[in-house]
Design goal:
This protein is α+β, with helices and mostly antiparallel strands and 590 residues long. It folds into 3 domains: 7-109, Jelly Rolls (Sandwich); 119-350, Spore Coat Polysaccharide Biosynthesis Protein SpsA, Chain A (Alpha-Beta Complex); 364-542, no CATH class. The chain is 36% helix and 24% strand.
Length: 590
């Protein structure tokens, strides 16, 4: 590489631009816009051959044009967007002949006018990530091509470690000038921060969109420009979502097109079994699946462009604090005629969930409550389909694993759902502190890092290694029913051995501590998800009995009252998400 836009091709070598960020996602432009012809302009120096290729939805490659060039050359290729309904990309290769050649740059353009011409305001929500935010602002300030499409940058700071106090902030703020506006407010979660950005953008006549960005990311400013341009050209207003690469393992793509399974009402990647995709192992040209046009139900708010037309029609985010606010909004927008496009070539790098397990920390409350609320609002299956069965099963697994804290949080979540929709606004600022405070009552939440504490089990890892050797694996079908029933009864009746209470009976690595292995023991030492220490899980028959009764009762009541609650939440939704309601929240919490 000679620079950001240029590269040297050594004599006799071929360089392909059929890559994720360089190829043109032809199928998405054909499907969502009225553009039917694009021009590829390639600038080269030296003797070379430029070859233009296309693919179809099955990933089959075809050459569509070839050009021999000499000296300083500018080559134009006019390419039709008429054969990509199922999928396909366009790209080009450069082959150096007897001498080395230089690719000086290339662009994909169209002479067609966009459907709308307004800019986008950026909304960055942060809580104690000032270093990431300053780096994002610096990347934007250094990218005039992207800023040409930006009206305002709203940085909503909800933390105690302020972005304004971070090294480098003063310089980048001076560079961005009036374009940057920092807003201080109490911690109202992602939904509160992003709703503030939506609210402020609604006051901007120059903006047609708000571009939401997470704080702990590394952005590619060109992706911002691409998402806004695509939004401008879309025949009808659409949400334009960005893909998510792993910040700590850069070639791995974790988030592509995300969909909602109607039965269990649970999010997942389309073709979940194929993700994450490692571009270090297989590039775009070698990855057949990635040539298909994939339609999404929603996109994570690590990066998502939302047209203001959608916000004016369906409102702002649900006051959910965190979790499901992005999915719920996209479902709501989709029902109102504003689909979500998960756009290839538009992406950022975000810390993935590989070293996290937020299903067992304070976030378990929001996972449970917001999923059920979203189901009440959008599920079309009678009584939520398998949602409540799946939710109860999650509780049973936690109980069998001696993880009582998340079960307590999930029980509170169900009680709050049953109390009616008003609680969502009332506890917006208090639910998270309350959930975190509850951890003090559950010793298994303590991560033991000090080697002087109990960091060794009575039998080490030998016991569970024997389980692995005996293929003691995830039970399914009839075996699953028998295992669950016998384990639940055993936990109800069995009193743990005092020796196992005093010191953990066995030790598990985090990846091996499955719900079908831990129940065989009275206690276990389990590595924390981030590897920082170990948690101790200990059987507690009294807690187990009480929590088992609670989860069965609460889920039964929720199923019985589902039609009534569904009516309540759907009637309350317009007020919960209205700009006026959120403005009152911002004024009350100021």
């Amino acid at each position: 590489m000679l620079g950001r836009n240029s590269a040297r091709i050594v004599s006799g070598r071929r360089v392909s631009l059929g890559t994720y960020f360089n190829a043109f996602p032809a199928s998405y432009w054909q499907h969502w816009t009225s553009v039917r012809q694009v021009r590829l302009t390639v600038r080269t120096t030296g003797p070379a051959t430029v070859l233009v290729y296309r693919s179809n939805g099955s990933g089959v490659r075809q050459r569509v044009d070839t050009r021999e060039v000499m000296g300083d050359a500018t080559s134009h290729f006019d390419l039709a967007l008429t054969q990509y309904s199922d999928g396909g990309w366009l790209w080009f290769d450069v082959v150096a002949d007897e001498k080395s050649a230089v690719l000086e740059g290339a662009e994909w353009t169209t002479e067609q006018e966009p459907t709308r011409t307004g800019k986008a305001s950026l909304g960055i929500t942060t809580y104690n990530k000032p270093d990431y935010c300053v780096e994002t602002l610096q990347a934007l300030a250094a990218s005039p091509d992207a800023l040409e499409f930006v009206d305002r940058i709203f940085l909503v700071d909800q933390g105690t470690q302020l972005v304004a106090d971070q090294d480098g902030y003063a310089e980048v703020a001076e560079s961005l000038g009036e374009m940057l506006q920092v807003i201080r407010q109490p911690n109202l979660g992602g939904s509160g921060g992003f709703s503030r950005a939506m609210h402020e953008t609604l006051q901007r006549p120059e903006s047609d969109f708000v571009q939401l960005l997470d704080d702990d990311v590394r952005i590619e400013p060109e992706s911002l420009r691409r998402s806004i341009v695509f939004g401008q050209y879309a025949t009808n207003p659409v949400l334009v979502g960005g893909h998510m690469f792993d910040l700590l393992d850069r070639p791995k793509l974790h988030g592509w097109a995300e969909v909602m399974d109607e039965g269990p009402f649970m999010w997942r990647n389309l073709y979940q079994e194929k993700m994450p995709h490692d571009f270090g192992t297989a590039n775009l040209r070698q990855s057949t699946l990635l040539h298909m046009r994939m339609d999404a139900d929603y996109n994570g708010w690590w990066m998502c462009l939302i047209p203001l037309d959608a916000i004016r029609k369906v409102g702002l985010a649900l006051p959910a604090f965190i979790k499901w606010d992005d999915a719920e909004f996209c479902l709501r927008a989709g029902e109102a005629g504003f689909p979500t496009v998960s756009m290839p070539g538009v992406a950022l790098w975000h810390v993935s969930w590989v070293n996290k397990d937020d299903s067992i920390d304070w976030q378990a409350y929001f996972h449970a409550r917001n999923r059920i609320v979203a189901g009440l609002l959008h599920s079309n299956v009678p009584r939520g389909g398998r949602l409540l069965t799946h939710s109860r099963r999650v509780d049973l697994k936690h109980l069998m694993m001696m993880q009582y804290y998340p079960v307590a949080l999930r029980a509170q979540a169900l009680r709050d759902v049953l109390s009616g929709p008003a609680h969502m606004r009332e506890n917006l600022a208090t639910a998270m502190p309350a959930a975190r405070a509850l951890a003090a009552a559950y010793p298994e939440t303590t991560v033991h890092r000090d080697p002087s504490t109990v960091l060794h089990s009575r039998h080490g890892r030998q016991v569970y290694k024997k389980l692995l050797q005996n293929d003691y694996d995830n039970p399914t079908g009839v075996k699953l029913r028998i295992f669950t029933l016998t384990t639940l009864v055993a936990h109800w009746l069995h009193k743990p051995n005092p020796d196992n209470v005093a010191q953990p009976e066995v030790e598990f690595g985090k990846e091996d501590a499955h719900w079908w292995r831990l129940p065989a023991f009275d206690s276990a030492l389990v590595s924390a998800a981030d590897g920082s220490g170990k948690n101790i899980y200990t059987r507690d028959r009294k807690k187990y009995r009480r929590m088992l009764r609670d989860t069965m009762r609460l889920h039964s009541e929720l199923k019985r009252r589902w039609p009534e609650l569904q009516k309540q939440y759907r009637q309350a939704l317009p007020e919960l998400v209205s700009d006026k309601s959120w403005q009152q929240i911002f004024e009350e919490k100021a």
